[in-house]
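Dear colleague,

As promised, here are the two records you asked about, laid out in our usual form so they can be pasted straight into your sheet.

NAME FIELD: protein one
SEQUENCE, THEN STRUCTURE:
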Amino acid sequence: MYKILINGAGWVASQHAAAYRNRPDCRIVAINDISREKAQRFAEELNLGDVGIYDNLGAALQHDGLDIVSVCTPQEIHCGNVVQIAAAGKHILIEKPAALSLDELRRMQSAVQSAKVKTLVSFCLRWNPLLVMLKKMLTEGVFGDLYYVEVDYSSYLGSWWGGWNEGRTLEYGVSASVVAGCHAVDAARWLSTTESNKAAIPVEVYAMNGGFRKGTACEGKAREYNPTTNTWRDDAPPMEYDGLEVMLVKFASGVQAKIGVNAECIKPYSFPIRIFGNRGTAIDNKIWSASFPGQTDWIELPTIRPDSSDVTHHPFQAEIDHFIDCIANDVESHCNLEDAAHSHEIIFAALECYKSRRPIELPLK
């Protein structure tokens, strides 16, 4: 029986909790949040029963028999949380983004390596049914040898999201790709190799940024769109970074990728995917391949696509099932902190490129 601490009692934490509760070998034994009242309310709303309620991570880590901690706190405190949890010898599921800077990332990696605990960074779209099917097709040669991949995060970030007040800032959000578009960065890595259970390793990044929302405000307020209700408001706080980022990435295998992060498009959320190989092509869930001789039209995969920003749509169950299996079998996840560091480095290289206006080689020093 694995005993679980949920650290942070917010929106995404509810999905972590639901996935753990669906497993007979897992039991949530403690909730920690900066607000003890919020932690208590979280436990009551999910009917978790007799669990420890804490408002201090250090105290929560002393809970009897703890095995795993889900880090669901705001991104600006992920680094401190992970370093502290690793020192306590607990396995860690880390919500994305794992870190806000290269320095934070390296500190976290060092702490985890020293503690020898298992980690998983919650790039949960690796378990989205469409991406699972595409990955299987890649490994089976349906597209042949890859040469080019495109993945886009296409949405409108704003006050409809509960974490936006911090996420819109340079200090706590950093950039559109850090706070949200990192899903597209990681998916591009996942789909840019035909190796199963591996993501492509980046070696060079060139990027440009732009858009129209950065700093647009009248006396500190801006006009803002809500894609969930198709409405507007005129009194929203402004975004402090560019809402559009375009990254060109070269991987060690020679495959190239274009990653678009557009956090200010006036439309519902979407997550376009393009895969190009010397035997076939994928356009989202549509397939064209030499593996299907006589094909006269696109084959459309009837599956669940990554087409919603709602956390209830995300495949947390499959992700957490995978993590528990890794712990039980003493193997590292394909999406552990060491691997996820490559996705974060692409973003940090892009941020450097916006200043230097030149290609950036990886790994970052």
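NAME FIELD: protein two
SEQUENCE, THEN STRUCTURE:
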Amino acid sequence: MSLASFLAALPKAELHLHLEGAIAPATLLRLAARRRIALPATDEQSLRDWFRFRDFEHFVEVYLACSRCLRDPEDFQLAAEGLLATLESLGIVHCEAHFTIATHAANGANPGELLDALAETVAAGERERGVRLRLIPDIVRNVGTGPADLTLDWALAGQRRGLVVALGLSGSEARFPSEPFADHFAAAARHGLHRVAHAGEHAGPESVRAVLALGAERLGHGVRSVEEPALLAELVARQVPLEVCPTSNLLLGVAPDLASHPLRALVAAGAAVTINSDDPAIFDTDLVRELTRVGEELEYPAERLVELAAAGFAHAFLPAPERATLVARLHRAARELAPVHLGRELAGPPQPA
């Protein structure tokens, strides 16, 4: 019996995960062999050692190595198949994964062929594994509006195929503004496509306000909103979901440890917090470990962790009746699993922190 086994057995959703940052070392070795790309290691354990986070520059190096090994449609299918298998093993039944299509197009991939290949693989994963994977193509602030045009076009084409649920915005929020992409977000809204933006991670409240002005419906990270009480109050009142990635934040220097991380303050304020893994292969984590870490280090009871897990379904880009059904499924499973994994019944809803 353990908290981790309880959390692993629950049906869950993950809303902030990057497909490229979820490629396991074993999969990367296969991809590199196909592409005849030399990696810093030639066996899985050595590559795992190389993956281990050191600093931001090394993180970028690993991320770009993963991206360089993706070129042909079958490469992306292999990456997506690996992700689907991992999601199934973790009990994740719905995942919305960020995907930087413009980077791959710049590396020579054919966007239309990738759309066909990924749609096929995702449909098979849903049919054979019971795991629903949807994509959020990211505009990267750093590279300008040309690649953003391509990203928007691909996102809209993917929306028509049922593969894409939102347009995203990523890249350096501290060095590059969000405002140049207002037209892209407006176009997405006109077509009924959801909008997500990384903000409030390496820049403060001003970054969050900028993406809210663009019409972002969910915030990737958003944790530095606590630095401005009025902004935090607005996020709570509007229940704008925050995709919090604890281990990622700690490794990238947003906070020195979980005790001083804004997560506790966000939960206490009543913010719409979800827990996620960001780049799980690079940060050596996953959703179950993130939830377990939050429970153990912040001394949250299982009841509160169940509510945090339920928030993943509640704020997914799904029709409201389906979200409600999934939340109810999670709560039912939690009640049934608690005696087996925790040795006790669950109490009522958690009290405010």
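A couple of things worth noting about protein two: The chain has a mean pLDDT of 94. The beta strands are 12-18, 92-99, 132-140, 166-170, 194-199, 218-221, 241-244, 272-275.

Best,
R.
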